[in-house]
């Protein structure tokens, strides 16, 4: 198999061709894909033509499947796959239709956030429905040495229930979820466990403050980092084609799904999530 890797932007992103992701692959091919993933952070496999089971099989080449963190969006018909869709499911608009409307890395509220995800495009609106990715490496590396020295030493408090998409949930459900997903303390800068590179690891979706500081005290620096992290030069904007499979490294990127399309048209994506390694701990107010 003769893999070709073509960069899609300066910051991150590459298109991979010459590999049939629907079939079992050799160790050499899997190794080449993994190396490209670590280098480019986001890989695009065009014309992947995958069933959900084939998507799971391909994903398993790179790690274990994360089932727990995505269970709210799980599709009973295909274990291992969640549907991110604005289709009507069981007579109601899917609760996944507004996933990703603010910049985030997936499940950054969890003590063990996912390593990455593989998102497959099954239906697309006429125009738009894009996904934007930003390199947290580049954002970190472009900070001044003095600010890098400061953020290196800070931690943040992340809270799943702070996510804008969850503000609708009823209070009883919020109380239950508060027990299942307590706030966590995470490093402001994450060292990638495979590449050793550092990236900014806080985001506007779930980060509520700097650990040991008040919300007010935290606001200025956090807002600066959020704005800095999505500067145009750190971003790759993926314009989907039907059948694209996009695989992102959740340890060194953030992403966004803007409402840049007609929501009356169907956008249907299938996602497989890879389990990650620990980054955080449950927040304990007695340690602040
Ligand atoms: C996700 C997500 C983005 C999209 O699945 O985690 O943020 O474009 N999706 O659907
Ligand atoms: Mn996401």
Key attributes of the depicted protein:
four-stranded antiparallel β-sheet; Double-stranded beta-helix; binds N-oxalylglycine; 6 helices; single chain; alpha+beta; binds manganese (II) ion; seven-stranded mixed β-sheet; globular; 288 residues
Descriptive overview:
The model has no long low-confidence stretch (mean pLDDT 95). The chain has 288 residues and is an alpha+beta fold. A hairpin with a 6-residue loop joins β1 (4-7) and β2. The longest helix has 15 residues, at 215-229. It is globular. The strands form five sheets. Strands 1-2-3-15-7-17-4 form a seven-stranded mixed sheet, covered by helices on one side. A four-stranded antiparallel sheet has the order 13-9-10-18. Strands 14-8-16 form a three-stranded antiparallel sheet. It contains six helices and 18 strands. Helix content is 21%, strand content 25%. The chain starts with a strand and ends in a 6-residue tail after the last strand. It has a single domain (4-277), classed as 4-Layer Sandwich (Double-stranded beta-helix). The structure holds N-oxalylglycine and manganese (II) ion. Manganese (II) ion binds next to loops.
Helix-strand string = EEHEHEEEEEHHEHEEEEHEEEEE
Show unreliable segments: none
CATH class: Alpha Beta
Radius of gyration: 19 Å
CATH superfamily: Clavaminate synthase-like
Question: Distance between the terminal alpha carbons, to the nearest Å?
Answer: 54 Å
Spell out which ligands are present: N-oxalylglycine, manganese (II) ion
Task: Compute the number of structural domains.
Answer: 1
Q: How would you state the average pLDDT, rounded? A: 95
CATH architecture classification: 4-Layer Sandwich
Helical stretch tally: 6
**CATH topology descriptor:** Double-stranded beta-helix
Total number of strands: 18
